[in-house]
Design a protein that fits this description.
It is built from 8 helices and 24 strands. The longest helix is centred in the N-terminal third of the chain and has 14 residues. It has 451 residues and is mainly beta. The strands form 4 sheets. Strands 1, 14, 15, 16, 18, 19, 20 and 21 form an 8-stranded antiparallel beta sheet that branches. Strands 2, 3, 4, 6, 7, 8, 9 and 13 form an 8-stranded antiparallel beta sheet that branches.
Length: 451
Amino acid sequence: MKKIREEKDILQCAKDMKEAAKNPLVPGARIIRGADAVPVYVNESACRQWFYPLSEVNDLGMFTYIEKEAKTDNDRAWTIQYHPDVNLYYYILEGSGKVIFGDDNKSFETEVYDFTEQEVVIIPREVPYYMEGEWKAICFHARTGVFGTVAGTNRYPHPVVTVNKPSRPTEAESNNQKEPGNYTCYDQTMTRQLDFGNVSGKRSEYINLENVRSDYTEKSGTYDINDLYAEVTPIDEQTHIISNIKEAKKNATVLGARVLKRKDAPPVYNANAGLRQSSYPLTWTDDIAICNLAEKLASSDEERPFDSHSHPDIEEYKFILSGSGSVTIGVGDETCEEEYYEFKAGDLVILPRGLAHVDAGGYSALYFHAKQSVFGKTPGDSLYPHIAYVYTRPHRPTKEEEEALNDPGTFIKMNSRETYNVYCPNPIERIEKNPTDMTHLRPDLFPETEA
């Protein structure tokens, strides 16, 4: 990743802006280049991170690339922290490490998980954690959680509460540490902060004063709350790793997997896109609706081209892991002009809500979208949060693949693992331009037309 933008990066940005201007009613970047990510040394994690400059129209509150060194575990330990109202997601690109949850059993039992490349680490909202090891990853979270709560503030959508204050070897690092209990919200590039001070609240157990009531002759039973939750609350066992399921049950009040292994997402064939796809098994408590690893061959462009489709009410993000390709926006939709962008590894492609798009090239990518948009829209429903509207039906070389494709005008809802589809038959009969060019029919209203 670059530390300084070069002249060619500025020229590429201008080219992208010119392309996006073809559809001026759709604000927001279509692609954020890796070269445009902002490098920041984050004192709390002792890592260099590159923050992608998202804007207020994006469904993500933060997206960053991280490089972690093992030596910092000893001289610059990761600050224990948590994130109110939102889950944090790490996709491990290289290396391995551990994630440790808990706060010395004050409010949460300690959970420990190993992770390695191509695995998804999920940090549940409000659960303290720190990380160890040597690895590279991308990290992101939604702007609005699955429970409808906005992360941070409008301008500062990355919320962090500090739990401890580990030692630092230099005076500058020590002086710039947050105090335990400090609540801070950062902007999308972590270059500005809104510091609320020690307002994060103080966790403690409620004191039951039943013993002072002599009229209560029968004493109530006592419960371990996590044991009780484990007995009465069914969970979705997202992972096949028995030890990880057992570890998560230490805090049974916190639903959802903490680490999704690569083998938890077996590869399948996506006939509509003509590529190999692996869907990580997300669940109801996740802020992210889908998280898929896509592996596409350039040779597919001839025999098995992408279908053109859009995702109403939600942005789809595609982080390019390797290779290169292109995305064309507006194919099959006569209501917008076509936009064309080429991408390569390190680029974050943002597909605006409701705009048709077609991919080409040979690449691997992680693509995902949130469950709630920045505008408060919930695409699909609880069981089927991944939605698509189809514009084209490209050719396929076999009858079996042909039959698997969807007709133009089809509206589909899919579950997070894309194992089930719900077909909503032709909710839109057609999309066409509003005929506003018939001014010649009314010379009394448009005299300049007659002239």
